[in-house]
Specification:
The protein is α/β, with parallel strands linked by helices. The protein has 2 domains: 177 residues, 3-Layer(aba) Sandwich (Rossmann fold), CATH 3.40.50; 78 residues, Cytochrome-c3 Hydrogenase, Chain A, domain 2. It has 15 helices and 9 strands. Strands 2-1-3-7-9 form a 5-stranded parallel beta sheet, with helices on both faces. Strands 4-8 form a two-stranded antiparallel ribbon. It has a two-stranded antiparallel ribbon with strand order 5-6. Strand 5 and strand 6 form a beta hairpin. Helix 2 packs across helix 3 and helix 4 packs across helix 10. It is globular. It binds iron/sulfur cluster (SF4) (2 copies). The site of one iron/sulfur cluster has 14 residues, from helix 12.
Length: 314
């Protein structure tokens, strides 16, 4: 172990995180990314001895900031800091100290300085009707800012359902013509879908890039296959009850507590691609179907219009 790695583990211990806990996290992350266990030490190295810090510009458009909250707070309480340390976050409105003109200047300078080299992370949908007039920050429309910044990025990662496919902003009647970033700008994006997305899928995408020098393989709507290659239903622990026809008819019933299938109370698991049942939320504590709530299809395009009313069998 070199000096840098030793300092890294001492710092972790200072936060009350043992090396064993950290390696457990790296094992979990490696498995989530679909890599063999031989990659675990390499994944650990990405955090412990990063070769270089990748510049990131993180834009916020029409959204609730839940994705930032999910990414930086809700998982392992210490992983947010590790991720922020392997990345060089040049602009992020929620966590940066600068405000107003100072913040605008920081965005402009970072885009020019790292032109063609930075990753643009986008959170939020973009208004496209009336020249984008339904969404503005600092006198510029989301559409203008997105065009200026994304066109100069090495790659664009959409975090969450809003930037991926428009989400609730794009639900009918959608007067502002809100769309996801790819559709609004006519570009290819990596879409970490979900409302909110699971932070591990964002971290896995970033680590894949740092480790292998490329973004992960995607499905035909831009979602990383390691996370969105199978449906919720494929890996649901209630699946045996689906097959034997044992359904929950009423919320809060004895059947729900016993883990019967939620299809009749609206579960969209059979049509929804995501890995919630495998990686779960909040450090692997639970996930909606485990807690007795049907999957509402939050990582599928148009899920508000296509899947509502949520609690009725399709
Ligand atoms: S609860 Fe949903 S995901 Fe699970 S088996 Fe039933 S329909 Fe499939
Ligand atoms: S279970 Fe379904 S609705 Fe819930 S977070 Fe996962 S994909 Fe979204």
């Amino acid at each position: 172990m070199d000096k840098e790695e030793r300092a890294f583990y001492e710092k972790l211990e200072g936060k009350g995180v043992s090396r064993r806990d950290f390696m457990k996290f790296c094992t979990f992350l490696t498995a989530t990314m679909g890599l063999s266990s031989s990659f675990i030490p390499k994944v650990a190295e990405v955090f412990a001895a990063p070769a270089q810090r990748t510049p990131v510009i993180w834009l916020h458009f029409g959204e609730c900031t839940g994705c930032t909250e999910a990414a930086i707070r809700a998982m392992y309480p210490w992983i947010d800091q590790l991720v922020l340390e392997v990345l060089d976050v040049e602009y992020q409105e929620t966590i940066m100290a600068a405000a107003g003109h100072q913040a605008e200047e920081q965005l402009h300078n970072a885009v020019e300085k790292y032109k063609g080299k930075f990753i643009c992370v986008v959170e939020g949908a973009i208004a496209t009707k009336f020249n984008g007039g339904y969404g503005k920050v600092a006198g510029k429309t989301f559409l203008q800012t997105a065009k200026e910044v994304c066109s100069k990025a090495a790659g664009v990662i959409c975090i969450g359902q809003c930037s991926s496919y428009g989400n609730i902003q794009a639900a009918k009647p959608n007067p502002g013509g809100y769309k996801g970033v790819g559709a609004a700008l006519g570009i290819k994006t990596v879409n970490i879908a979900g409302c909110p997305p699971n932070p591990i899928n964002f971290v896995g995408t970033i680590v894949n890039y740092l480790l292998l020098g490329k973004l992960p393989a995607l499905d035909d709507i831009g979602r990383p296959l390691f996370a969105y290659g199978q449906t919720i239903h494929d890996n649901c622990p209630r699946r045996g009850h689906f097959e034997s026809g044992e359904f929950v008819e009423v919320f809060g019933s004895k059947e729900a507590a016993e883990g019967y299938c939620l299809f009749k109370v609206g579960c969209r698991g059979p049509e929804t691609y995501n890995n919630c049942s495998i990686v779960k939320f909040n450090g692997g504590t639970s996930w909606p179907v485990q807690a007795g709530h049907p999957c509402i299809g939050c990582s599928q395009p148009d899920f508000w219009d296509k899947f509502t009313p949520f609690y009725q069998e399709l």
